[in-house]
Amino acid sequence: MKIICIGRNYADHIKELDSAKPTEPVIFLKPDTSILLKKQPFFIPEFSNDVHHEVELLVRINKIGKHIDQKFAHKYYDEIGLGIDFTARDLQAKLKKEGLPWEKAKAFDGAAVVGNFLKKEDFDDINDIDFSLKRNDKIVQKSNSMLMMWKIDALIEYVSKYFTLKIGDIIFTGTPAGVGSVKANDILTGFIGKTEMFSIKVK
Ligand code: MG
Fold it and tell me: How far is it, in rounded angstroms, from Cα 187 to Cα 201?
């Protein structure tokens, strides 16, 4: 399986990082080895002093497809989840400056938290999903899928122009504002609405 991540999909996050607003979705990949194993803590890697949490809605692909039209995209997934795109922000800033790919900063072991999934039918509207992240007792990120610049079905159309989507692939749909550094002993808890989707200890 592969993990396809969307960058810069919420205007408020583009603003906080002072990034340019893209005219097309920004895409990068994480390998399957980046998935944090269930019930394991996240270890801050030794090559970074500034690992950020980025909470994101996830879409799990359940049908193989290529060149999927937006109006048929809903047939290619039936579950929505929540995860974290951990990012070594200091390393990413250096790579960006040098015009290099971001993988070292985003695709390292443990950098993808894949939490629980909910059935698509459980939602009235997938373009109106509240989600949030608590760092210890404080809500640090909170948004709604209606604020995505490219909505889920548009992302599937765009991504499938470049990559064949296979059963089990996961799309990370981008993070809203509120990203920040994690510290040892933090507990990160993600929610869709009021439902807890994951809880991760940082070490
Ligand atoms: Mg992200």
Answer: 5
- How far does residue 74's CA lie from ligand 1's centre (Å)? 22
Beta bridge mates, 189: 134, 199
Distance from C-alpha of 150 to C-alpha of 144, rounded to nearest angstrom: 13
What does the block give as tokens for 79?
Answer: 């579950």
Ramachandran bin of 194, using left for φ above 0, alpha for ψ from -120 to 50, beta for the remaining angles: alpha
Whether the CB-CB separation of 190 and 172 falls below 8 Å is answered with: no
Tell how far the Cα of 62 is from the centroid of ligand 1, in angstroms. 22
Structural domains in the chain, CATH included, are: 3-201 (3.90.850.10)
- Dig out the tokens for 123 from the structure: 């939602």
> At which residue do the structure tokens 């799309």 appear?
171
The token pair at 146 is 């209606």
pLDDT digit string (tens) for 50-85? Answer: 999 999 999 999 999 999 999 999 999 999 999 999
Please give the distance, rounded to the nearest whole angstrom, from the Cα atom of residue 6 to the centre of ligand 1: 6
- Per DSSP, helices labelled H in 66-181 are 89-97, 103-106, 152-162
DSSP labels, 134-145: EETTEEEEEEEG
CA of 64 from ligand 1 middle (Å) equals 24
Collect all residues with Cβ–Cβ distance below 8 Å to 21 and sequence separation of at least 6: 8, 11, 14
* Residue 21 banded pLDDT, cuts 50, 70, 90: confident
